[in-house]
Design a protein that fits this description.
It catalyses: a 2'-deoxyribonucleoside 5'-diphosphate + [thioredoxin]-disulfide + H2O = a ribonucleoside 5'-diphosphate + [thioredoxin]-dithiol. This protein is α+β, with helices and mostly antiparallel strands. 37% of the residues lie in helices and 15% in strands. It folds into 4 domains: 299 residues, Anaerobic Ribonucleotide-triphosphate Reductase Large Chain, CATH 3.20.70; 193 residues, Anaerobic Ribonucleotide-triphosphate Reductase Large Chain; 89 residues, no CATH class; 123 residues, no CATH class. The radius of gyration is 29 Å and the shape is globular.
């Protein structure tokens, strides 16, 4: 294990002695160990696969504080405890886990001169243990996996590699990625140094181009993923927009997505984790195009843009910039890739430009720095700093940031790295990534709407305070230990970026006394940091990022991850002894109190949310407060641009970037994607990705609204309940009935549909004609029409058919001539969208996500894609009846402290995502966990499993 020394070679000749740090107590009591102030208990952890009931993990008698939730206990025990199960060497207490990590950090701090006295080392140890014990922060997962064990002491989750235009370098790229994936981490790199397929080799042949080499790397990642790693191989592939192969790069995943549709429709298992998904390529990486200001200005002006040779730098081809930008948006609309990274913005905030440009990112796009480097992360739980009076505890937050940054920097002294180059760069630049979780919960609890000026002002102020404090402590560490090795060469650039951060802080437009108070504290920290750093330099080239905080978010019992808003107003709670419960998020009552509602009104509102899953028409809740309770999903979902505005508010106060995917509704257009990508550049974001609902084939299809039925009973003359025969009875259409014929075209295939109705206007039959009479297609469509018609006459609800047949994918698929249904994934998809528009009421279609062109226009105009009231002319949607999904709480079986707003969830529900699906009556685009079968929920640009804590990314 390679270690650094207390002073760098650049500082060894300095006459100024290094003095170590004085650590002050904030949370702990002298003479009392933090463990002695907590009530402990023993619990049994038994985790099962949600789908088949098999036991995935079992460890009984583990010791945790009583205050920790069952979910946090399960995930920490199964993910982070080390040692073979069933042996004495297996960790069985949170004390052992925290001691293993904290003792390693404290000892390394002693050895490398971080503490002024032994007493300071003890205070550091106690304070760090206290914060971890009380869920104030968490290190990223590799720390818990590796530190203090016999394994390599890898502390970083994020890596950036590099590849040059030689076969040796390309093969080394495959090897290095494999080693990183084997350890459960992720990596990103930029392939733009590899010459394009339009250039010649030195031998005279034509180069293969980077896209061809991506196939080999993708296959390698897929093999390691299926070889038993704790999570899938996470990777990012970046290509510069001026690379001659950029169009082929943009099309890679879009073309493969089309192949997936064809194979799926042919009967192959193409779901995420399916047996046949490995037959398609490029599925193991996130793709991003690195766009320049020059390119974006060419898009803005509609001019041509030059593509440059990788070997000479000369322009060898030109493209229409607007057309290329549209191709990127269309590909992202169709398959969610590529994302964009804004090159000039990224490098304008680069503290070490003399040592090289920033060309790539980690897989989740929050870590951006030099090639062959890494970043270790830690995240603070913002809700822990919210006082009972609703005020943010600024002093506690500042002291906590100081301690966490100190610990993170110490880790680089003893850390191991997967390659020599990564180790050398990381030790030389000491990149750190402090961040936070629970921002969405904090905003709601303080009565701020996520998409509001007040919410953004508060978020920006807290983020500025965090990074300002981190850099001020970094400057103090430089004085106490030494600046980073690369600082002397980059001193002017580093100071310039610090001034940019400070200037952005001064530009925060505060709206309330609270965010002004926090902003003023941040101003003080930036001023102190500039003063100390100007004298002693800085210890770290980077200090902060905003990571997904998936698994560690569960460890801290956070309601929201990273910079995300609340996922939904109701969530899933596991119960000790088995079973689960639907509860209203605990931030809702705090928000109602902050907004001034009396207790009895708040209770009625919470009851309504428990019943309906949203706040629309909640008794006593003023409509102007609805926005406070807007979430990522549900009846009132935050508009895509609302997410972008929040990212833009906090980006100037982050050293790196933000892991976040902007979710867009299914009815969003390519033009909407273009607007998101273009406005993100104008707002100063560093990186962005979008995801449009239902754009991916490899996602679980909707199962429709659950609602098991029971045999009805009637009362006879004697009052006894008599069971009735409920076999369906066919209700035939009258001889003369109203009908309507629609002609249509799907991807050039023409057809006609005639829909016949009962006199009371209920659909009773359909006839579909395509191709010539006597052909196979015509016969199949006739049979299909008759089957649907007879079933309708036997009483099968039309909405059931619509929920099953929309999004069915097979050829022909593409553009239609119907203004209300511009794109169809198949003829059947088009037919049932058209039928729904003609024969289902608005509230039913709203639940299914099917709207007319006018309704979509109204939604865009109001910038609220999720609200049922988006179309003013349409009647308000009735609440979805979810009583069939749960039973009333029985006091005898309630958990301690369970209130009437907490309801037992139906056994068919395994996560908050599935609960939300049942309330809305439509599927959410989220993969199933490959470990326990639970449907995951978004966490930054990744997904996280509420059942076992597994993530789909690298953090």
């Amino acid at each position: 294990m390679t270690e650094t020394v207390g002073t760098t070679s650049e500082e060894s000749d300095s006459a100024a002695p290094r003095r170590g740090l004085t650590i002050e107590r904030v949370h702990t009591t002298p003479g009392v160990h933090p463990y002695d102030e907590v009530a402990w208990e023993r619990r049994d952890v038994v985790m099962t696969n949600w789908r088949d009931g098999s036991v995935n993990f079992e460890q009984r008698g583990v010791e945790f504080p009583q205050a920790w939730s069952l979910n946090a206990v399960n995930i920490v025990t199964s993910k982070y405890f080390r040692g073979a199960l069933g042996t004495d060497g297996r960790e069985s207490s949170l004390r052992q886990l925290i001691d293993r990590v904290v003792d390693t950090y404290t000892e390394a701090g002693r050895r490398h001169g971080y503490f002024a006295t032994p007493a300071d080392a003890e205070v550091f140890s106690h304070e760090l243990a206290w914060m971890l014990l009380h869920q104030y922060f968490s290190f990223n997962s590799p720390v818990w996996f590796n530190v203090g064990t016999t394994s390599p002491q890898q502390v970083s989750a994020c890596f950036i590699l590099s590849v040059d235009d030689t076969m040796e370098s390309i093969l080394n790229w495959y090897r290095e990625e494999g080693l990183i994936f084997k350890g459960g981490s992720g990596a990103g790199l930029n392939l733009s140094r590899i010459r394009s397929s339009k250039e010649l080799l030195s031998s005279g042949g034509t180069a293969s181009g980077p896209v061809s080499f991506m196939r080999g790397a993708d296959a390698s990642a897929g093999t390691i993923k299926s070889g038993g790693a704790t999570r899938r191989a996470a990777k990012m592939v970046v290509l510069d927009v001026d690379h001659p192969d950029v169009a082929a790069f943009v099309a890679t995943k879009r073309d493969e997505e089309r192949k997936i549709r064809v194979l799926r429709d042919a009967g192959f298992d193409m779901d995420l984790g399916g047996t046949d998904i490995t037959s398609v390529q490029y599925q193991n990486a996130n793709n991003s195009v690195r766009v320049s200001d020059e390119f974006m200005r060419a898009v803005q002006s509609g001019t041509e843009f030059g593509l440059r040779s990788r070997t000479t730098g000369e322009v060898i081809d030109t493209v229409d910039a607007t057309a290329l930008f549209q191709e990127m948006a269309e590909a992202a609309w169709e398959c969610a890739d590529p994302g964009l990274q804004y090159d000039d913005t990224i490098n304008d905030w680069h503290t070490s430009p003399e040592s090289g440009r920033i060309t790539a990112s980690n897989p989740c796009s929050e870590y951006l720095h030099l090639d062959n480097s890494s970043c270790n992360l830690a995240s603070l739980n913002l809700m822990k700093f919210l006082g009972d009076d609703g005020a943010f505890r600024v002093e506690d937050f500042v002291r906590s940031v100081e301690l966490v940054i100190t610990a993170m920097d110490i880790s680089i002294c003893f850390a191991d790295f997967p390659t020599q180059a990564i180790g050398d760069t990381t030790r030389a630049f000491r990149q750190l990534g402090i961040g936070y979780a629970n921002l969405g919960a904090l905003l709601m609890a303080t009565g701020h709407a996520y998409d509001s000026e007040g919410g953004r002002a508060l978020a920006a102020s807290i983020t500025s305070l965090m990074t300002g404090t981190a850099y001020r402590r970094s400057a103090e560490l430089a004085g106490a230990v030494a600046p980073y090795d690369g600082y002397a060469r980059n001193a002017d650039a580093h100071r310039r970026v610090m001034r940019k951060h400070a200037a952005a802080n001064d530009a925060i437009r505060t709206l309330h006394r609270e965010d002004a108070r926090i902003r003023d504290a941040a101003t003080h920290e930036w001023q102190r940091g500039l003063e100390v750093g100007g004298r002693d330099g800085w210890r770290n080239a980077q200090a902060s990022v905003l990571a997904p905080t998936g698994t560690i978010g569960f460890m801290m019992d956070c309601d929201t991850t990273g910079v995300e808003p609340d996922f939904s107003l109701v969530k899933f709670k596991k119960l000790v002894g088995g079973g689960s419960m639907q509860i209203v998020n605990q931030t809702v009552p705090r928000a109602l109190e902050a907004l001034g509602y009396p207790a009895e009104t708040s209770e009625a509102i919470v009851e309504y949310i428990a019943e309906h899953g949203h706040v629309v028409d909640a008794p006593g809740l003023r409509p102007e407060h609805y926005e406070v309770f807007d979430c990522a999903m549900g009846q009132r979902s935050i508009a895509p641009m609302g997410h972008v505005r929040m990212m833009a508010a906090v980006q100037p106060f982050i050293s790196g970037a933000i892991s976040k995917t902007v979710n867009m509704p299914e009815q969003a257009t390519v033009a909407d994607v273009e607007e998101i990508y273009f406005e993100s550049w104008k707002m100063g974001l560093k990186a962005l990705a979008i995801y449009r609902d239902n754009c991916k084939v490899g996602q679980p299809l909707s199962t429709g609204k659950a609602g098991g039925t029971t045999a009805e009973k009637t009362t006879g003359d004697g009052g006894a309940a008599v069971a009735q025969d409920h076999r369906p009875v066919r209700k035939r259409l009258p001889k003369k009935r109203p009908s309507e014929t629609v002609s249509f075209t799907v991807a050039g295939a023409e057809g006609y549909m005639t829909a016949g109705s009962y006199p009371d206007d209920g659909l009773g039959e359909i006839f579909v004609k395509m191709s010539k009479q006597g052909s196979t297609l015509a016969g199949v469509m006739d049979a299909f029409s008759m089957a649907i018609s007879i079933a309708l006459q036997y009483g099968v609800p039309l909405e059931t058919y619509v929920s099953k047949f929309v999004n069915m994918r097979f050829e022909p698929a593409g553009m239609t001539d119907d203004p209300d249904v511009r794109m169809a994934t198949s003829v059947v998809d088009y037919l049932f969208r058209r039928i729904a528009l003609d024969h289902l009421p608005y509230e039913k279609r709203a639940q299914l996500g099917i709207f007319s062109a006018d309704e979509r226009s109204a939604q865009v105009a109001t910038t609220d894609y999720g609200a049922a009231a988006a179309a003013p002319a349409a009647p308000a949607a009735e609440p979805v009846d979810v009583e069939s999904l749960r039973t009333s709480v029985d006091v005898s079986t309630s958990e301690p402290g369970e209130s009437p707003r907490e309801r037992r969830a139906d056994v068919s529900v395994g996560s908050s995502t599935e609960l939300l699906e049942l309330q809305q009556g439509k599927a959410a685009d989220a993969p199933l966990c490959l470990t326990c079968g639970t449907k995951m929920r978004p966490a930054g640009s990744c997904y996280v499993c509420e059942g076992c804590g597994s993530t789909s990314g690298c953090s």
